[in-house]
Design brief:
Layout lengths: L1 H9 L1 H16 L11 H16 L5 H18 L9 H12 L2 H22 L5 H93 L1 H26 L21 H10 L4 E6 L7 H21 L6 E7 L3 E8 L24 H11 L4 E6 L5 E8 L6
Parallel strand pairs: 1-2
Antiparallel strand pairs: 2-3, 3-5, 4-5
Length: about 400
Amino acid sequence: MSGLYAWLRRHPRLVDGTLALLLIVMGTGLRLSAIGELGWVRAVFIAGMVVPVVFRRAHPVGAFAAVVADGAIQVLVLSKPVPSDLSVLIVCYTLAAYTSRAVSLRGLAICLAGAVTAVLRWEPKHPSGSLLAAMGWATLVFCSLVLLAWLLGDSTRWRRDYYLALEERASRLERERDAQAQVSAAAERARIARDLHDVVAHNVSVMVVQADGASYALDTSPQRAREALEAISATGRRALAELRSLLGVLRDSAGPEAALTPQPGLAQLEELICEARTAGLPVSLAVEGTPRPVSEGEALAAYRVVQESLTNVRKHAGPGASAAVTLRYAEQDLVITIADDGRGALPGAGRLAGGELAGVPGSGHGLAGMRERVALYGGSVRSGPRPGGGYEVVAQLPLALEAA
């Protein structure tokens, strides 16, 4: 049956033509032997009632106007109605189903007024005692039929509008879902870009420092040169492991068996500090307050802040500089402080806010990356020269309730 309904919806003109043919049979086919007075006039009125039905969906207002005009002339000319006058109910239904409610209400009023007028004009004469009752019943029946046709049409229009609204809502939700997916993908790409910046900048700077040290110690201290080369090798392997961890999510073919290195966190800070010391930067690590569990994302953010800050110290603090890393567990926050005593923070040294140097390619993005990463968890980052010389970066991360 659903297939039949779908076929009928695809051929509305055929359905309406069949309905018009049925009205013609009702108006003429059953009365061919007794057309009565003005037979040709009745045929004209029947045609005026039937033809608009064929075009009722494409032109509901026009079809309604044609049928009502034909009916009004019938009341003035004919002495009794024709069966094809049922077209009035059909076009009343169509007007309610395919136009606005304001338009259909005006059409309903016209049809009700026409029904009352037709009863007064065509009601046969009865004895005085039953005339009023007969007219009342006829008026009630005709008006009820008109009202029922209008209610069916209005209900059809409401259901159609409701289904269209549901389809539009589903389409809008689908577009919003696609847009949200694009936003999430862009955020993920930005996160990966920040991580790549941290990993590459930190590990490459360590490798450059170790390589410079190895070249100086190659002739005078082969053992120290060998240690520096071993540190370069270990740093390179660590960098490759972190890069595989970051880029693994971009591989469509990566299955559950793909072994990805876990993201670093606060537990890896000791290793990061030792690596910086091996590279020739004296670094101290202090923990204040009672350590508490930190969510994985916040731990990664804290690690990246320390990593980027130490990278900037090695780049810009100058020779002989040292750094101090402090983790302070406050009541609701984790405060990470990285301070150095290098000359790069002194006036005229050329250091910009964020620990980058003017004229250095790619400078200025380190602090921006820190701020974006920490802001994801409701934290903040501030940085600037220290009063006694040097530079300081302070990051504040609210501790998540579920991690506390």
